[in-house]
Amino acid sequence: MLKRLTNILLGGILVLLCAGHAAPGVRAAGRWPDERAVGPFVCHADFSLTEYTDLLDQMARLQEDLRLTLDVQPPREPIHLFLFEHKGTYRKYIQAYFPNVPFRRALFIKQRGPGMVFAYLNSDFGTDVRHESTHALLHAAMPMVPLWLDEGLAEYFEAPVEMRAYQHPHLAKVRWAARFGQAPKLEHLDNVRTLDLMGQNEYRDAWAWVHFMMHGPPAARTELVQYLGDIQAHAPPGSLIDRLRRRVPELEKQFVDHFRNWKRQ
Fold first, then answer.
1. Tell me, what CATH number does 27's domain have?
2. Alpha helices, DSSP H only, in 30-81?
3. Residue 81 has pLDDT above 70, yes or no
4. What is the pTM (predicted TM-score) of this model?
């Protein structure tokens, strides 16, 4: 049965890629056991999504969270989520039609048409879907996002809203380093230009700077919003690091102070 379902789903993605646009091809195929629209997302799953209504509700709110906090504009086209019950089905799907994409537990891919997110059920399923969907929303609104910022924002918004500020897994290590006056080097993050060079430390540090901009000095948040606004307006944004240094005096010191003093209000 699993082999037959795999073949059916692979056939569906072939239609999708030949069409160049996800929605018409997927709907024409009509072979996904569960399909639902939530906010800007169209979900296609090879299993029942009934047990995942909380996650779907979070997905429906994710775009609004980005709009309210960072003024990221809504996408003008749907974003398609392809969700798999089994890792093996997911792997065959990706290998067959994206053979040059390195295998990852979840993926965001954007080619000629709307963005696509791929994930399979695992213990971090919700985190994976929110992370990759954040990438999809950012790239639906902007022609580019620097890699470290792209990943830092995805790390921040991958957590449920009630956990983003105070309960993210990265927070403890960042606060510990701040106790010793250590701030991640922004220039190092800015020089990481390919995803294969993003290791655990880089993901954590990118998240930390996003947290600082979201919850630290108001000037840092303002600069981030204006920077993303320039990108959305197709205006040359310059370097976010340079802009932060001009706007926020003693940037690293303020970063350290932010995490030393950070506690639930």
1. 3.40.30.160
2. 53-70
3. yes
4. 0.89
